[in-house]
Amino acid sequence: MVEARAVIKNSAGIHCRPTALITQEASEVDSVVTVVSSAGSCKLGSALDLMMLGLETGTQITLRVEGPDEEAVAEQFKKLFETEFDFPDAGA
Asked: Which terminus of the chain has a smaller tally of CB atoms within 10 A, N or C?
């Protein structure tokens, strides 16, 4: 098992759109990724479980990765959780 720490940088936190991208990417790796925050923990497989953690800007999380290529997968998800997503305004 490998652990990596990340800080949520997206200005709106991890809401629906980032959650969809993160869970999609999790479905494409063979490792099991668990997100741990002060609000609890969840495996990256359920978008609802991830959203229920309420990950806001500045929240520190720990990513626990088990499986093949643990180091690479941990780095991949650290970068993803620290992305400042730039989704277009739905009203534009």
From this structure: C
